[in-house]
């Protein structure tokens, strides 16, 4: 089974969007470089960010998002972002009316079912879980293996929290990745078991 990774760009004070669901400068690092990160050429990062991010993107087999993010992005017009093969949407509602049933999007009820479906689709590749409410629920359920953050030098003060509804303490290992790049700090942590052992 592939690793389950909670991932997102985040403000220094821990938010993935402001109070109006806007990312502000959180994605500026994705347009602040001169190295194309994907075939579209629309996303350009520093060489340092490319060397860290591209190999990770290439390992993703499925991404899990909440219905809120799906609706905000209009379902990425039926094309998974970043070249991901499948998107699993956690929702209590059916797919939108007129949604193409051939699009590689899967609508499931509950985070446990979403992780099971994403693991099935991803095989031995990474299952990525979008940070925020759904990511926090997956972490709280004990289903996250690793937390990856792209920390952007901005303070929001309020907004949508990286760890969403998490209220209990969760121990992470010391960071195994700390990379400084243009307008971003890339961090990665393994999630420790409740006993404090990995």
Automatic annotation (TrEMBL):
<dbReference type="Pfam" id="PF01872">
    <property type="entry name" value="RibD_C"/>
</dbReference>
<dbReference type="InterPro" id="IPR002734">
    <property type="entry name" value="RibDG_C"/>
</dbReference>
<feature type="domain" description="Bacterial bifunctional deaminase-reductase C-terminal">
    <location>
        <begin position="111"/>
        <end position="170"/>
    </location>
</feature>
<dbReference type="InterPro" id="IPR024072">
    <property type="entry name" value="DHFR-like_dom_sf"/>
</dbReference>
<dbReference type="GO" id="GO:0009231">
    <property type="term" value="P:riboflavin biosynthetic process"/>
</dbReference>
<dbReference type="GO" id="GO:0008703">
    <property type="term" value="F:5-amino-6-(5-phosphoribosylamino)uracil reductase activity"/>
</dbReference>
<protein>
    <submittedName>
        <fullName>Dihydrofolate reductase family protein</fullName>
    </submittedName>
</protein>
């Amino acid at each position: 089974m592939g690793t389950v990774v909670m991932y997102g760009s985040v403000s220094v004070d821990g938010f993935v969007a402001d109070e109006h669901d806007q990312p502000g400068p959180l994605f500026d690092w994705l347009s602040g470089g001169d190295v194309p990160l994907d075939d579209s050429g629309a996303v350009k990062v520093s060489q340092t960010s490319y060397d860290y991010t591209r190999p990770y993107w290439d390992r993703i087999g499925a991404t899990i998002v909440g219905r809120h993010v799906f609706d905000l992005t209009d379902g990425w017009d039926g094309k998974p972002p970043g070249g991901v093969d499948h998107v699993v949407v956690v929702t209590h509602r059916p797919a939108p009316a007129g949604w193409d049933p051939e699009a590689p999007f899967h609508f499931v009820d509950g985070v446990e079912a979403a992780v099971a479906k994403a693991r099935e689709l991803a095989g031995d590749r990474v299952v990525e879980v979008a940070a925020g409410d759904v990511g926090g629920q997956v972490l709280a359920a004990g289903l996250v293996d690793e937390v990856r953050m792209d920390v952007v030098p901005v303070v929001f003060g309020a907004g949508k929290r990286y760890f969403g509804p998490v209220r209990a303490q969760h121990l992470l290992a010391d960071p195994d990745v700390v990379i400084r790049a243009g307008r971003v700090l890339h961090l990665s942590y393994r999630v420790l078991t409740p006993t404090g052992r990995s």
